[in-house]
Each structure stands twice: as C-alpha cells, then as structure tokens.
Amino acid sequence: MMHTATYPLAARLLGAGAVLGLLQACSSAPASNTMVAPQIERELLSHSLHIETGEPLVMDTPHRNIRVTESRLFSIRQYDAQGTLQDEHRQYQTLPWAERTLTIQLGELAVTRQTDSDGQLRLNLLDEDIVPVDFDQLRVIELDAQATPEVRAEATLLIDRELRSVLHEASELIYDNLEEDDVEQWVDRIERLRQLGLKEEASQLENMLILLTTGDPHLQGEFVQALDNATTPQE
C-alpha cells in the first residue's frame, strides 16, 4: 500500500515566497531597450563680424563712434526620446563684439582700440598715440576686426581735407612744448582750439594745465586769472 507524503503548511508557504521573490526580481530588472532623454543639436552654419562706422563716410571732426557686432547662424534639430527628429529650424544670433581688440590703420601707423561691453569704441584722431601720423598725407583710415583667421571684418573712413588741416594745427596746440610757454600762450592755445571747434580738446588742455601747476600756486593763480580775462567780455 502506497502512502502519499504530506508537506507541512510552513514548507508550502516557503516555496510560494521563493517564487514570489523570483517574480519581483524579474520585474525590477532593467529593460534591455533603455529610454534616452530628448536631445537638441545645434550646428554653426555661419559666423561673421560687421563694423558700423556711422555717417558720413568722410570724417569732418576728429571723433567718431564705432560699433562692432558679431553674428552667428545655427541649425537647430530637436529629437524625442526615441531619437526621432521632431523639429528643425534656423536660429540667427547677433551680439555686440564686446571687449575685443580693433586694429586701426592710419597710413603707416597702426594702433589698437578695445570695444566696450556694448561693442562700441570712440575713435579720436587727437589721441596722443595717433598724433605722430602725418595728417597732411592721411586720406584713409582702415578698421580691422578679427575673431578668428577665417572670421574678420574691414571698414574704411575718409578724411576731409579741411579736417586734415585742423588736425595738424590742433596736435601742435595740444602737445608741442607746453613747458616753454607762459600762461598767456597757454590761454592762446586753449582759445585757438575753441575757434577750431574743438571744445572738448580745449577743456581737456585747460584741465591738464591746472593740474600741472598744482605744485606752483602762484603760477596756477596767474593761469586761472588769464583764463578769466580771456573769457570775460571786454567793455
């Protein structure tokens, strides 16, 4: 006579727990096809610089505001989590060429200037490092901005004939042998700059001479008095 083995209840529960644990482990295993996050790709199509010299093309004053901008064209592609292309468009970006160096060629003389945070700079042909140029022969100013060897911009400005004459005289009034002149001659220089329409330079020269005579109160007093006499209308 055969007897059927009877398993205790605890043993059967233990077996069921093992099966349940195996099922949970299988369900928590990572899927073979891992999902990826959506992606955006940006490709640079073009890169350029542009120099704005203002108007007119021919300079008739020593000063000119220059602005440099930098432009980029991008191709934008957006993909979903499965890598399928969802959108494609182009994006145009123009920004100031901020705090970068611009080369200025004046005949045989080259100087550099740096743009500000707005991509602007102020060209002043009476700056001390420019006045050595032969203004009588200066006809063209060349501006050169270079971001990379392949990305650059150039622009030109012309010099008015009358301005060349003014620059030649004004540079001598501002920089030549101030120490050898007396206070009356200093005042004459300042007044002549004003007559040439260079009020900014006249004011700068006046302030510089007041500063230079700080160590000699008597000389400074004579200079200030001479200035007052020159600006006081004669009765």
Write out key terms for the chains shown.
235 residues, alpha+beta, 2 domains, four-stranded antiparallel β-sheet, 9 strands, disordered N terminus
Q: What's the arrangement of secondary structure elements?
A:
Layout: H1 9-28, E1 39-52, E2 58-59, E3 63-79, E4 85-96, E5 101-106, E6 109-114, E7 120-124, E8 140-146, E9 152-159, H2 161-175, H3 183-195, H4 199-212, H5 217-231
Parallel strand pairs: 2-9
Antiparallel strand pairs: 1-3, 3-4, 3-7, 5-6, 5-8, 8-9
Helix pairs in contact: 3-4, 3-5
Describe the structure.
The chain is an alpha+beta fold. The chain has two domains: 39-160; 177-231, no CATH class. The chain contains five helices and nine strands. The strands form two sheets. The protein has a five-stranded mixed sheet. Strands 1, 3, 4 and 7 form a four-stranded antiparallel sheet that branches. The N and C termini lie far apart (152 Å).
Major β-sheet strand ordering? 2-9-8-5-6
Structural class: alpha+beta
User: Which regions are unreliable across 5 or more consecutive residues at pLDDT < 50?
Assistant: 1-7
Mean pLDDT: 87
Short note summarizing the structure:
The protein has 235 residues and is of the alpha+beta class.
